[in-house]
Design goal:
single chain, alpha/beta, four-stranded parallel sheet, two-stranded antiparallel ribbon
């Protein structure tokens, strides 16, 4: 039997921080209603700062790995949400995705000063994503609003 949970794919360029945090937050806060995934257009490695600031909330993403968008080709998703401008430019018209959305979120990897400043930026970004997810979860959970049909990420 197919899951009734809605599938959401978060995409950024490197799948190293923003999309990883979005996936982790969605799974932790609404895993009973949503299946969260993340991918990158040019994946690298999950940033240790992202793992650290998520652990502060009791959310463990240390087992996550950076994944390429192509790994999800042919799979159905209710939403594809880009969390960086570059990914939006590359993925805003992914064939087969009827419900793309874009959240232009600051890139925490650009913080270059000491560890405390980097962690402060990662926390700010985590909180920004969290605020957006709260609204998304509430709106997507409403039964009186139109529900997007699942669509496939084109190969």
């Amino acid at each position: 039997m197919r899951s009734m949970r809605k599938r959401v794919l978060f995409v950024c360029t490197h799948n190293s921080a923003r999309s990883q945090m979005a996936e982790g937050l969605l799974r932790a806060w609404a895993g009973d209603r949503f299946e969260g995934f993340s991918a990158g257009t040019q994946p690298t490695e999950v940033r240790p700062e992202a793992i650290a600031v998520m652990a502060e909330l009791g959310i463990d993403i240390s087992g996550h790995r950076a994944k390429a968008l192509g790994e999800f080709a042919g799979q159905e998703f209710s939403w594809l949400i880009t969390v960086c401008d570059r990914a939006w430019q590359e993925c805003s018209a992914v064939p087969g995705v009827e419900n793309p959305a874009h959240w232009g979120i600051e890139d925490p990897a650009e913080a270059t000063r000491g560890e405390e400043e980097r962690l402060a930026v990662f926390r700010r970004v985590r909180n920004d994503i969290g605020n957006r997810l709260h609204v998304f979860i509430l709106a997507a959970g409403r039964t009186d609003l139109p529900t997007p049909a699942g669509s496939r990420v084109a190969p």
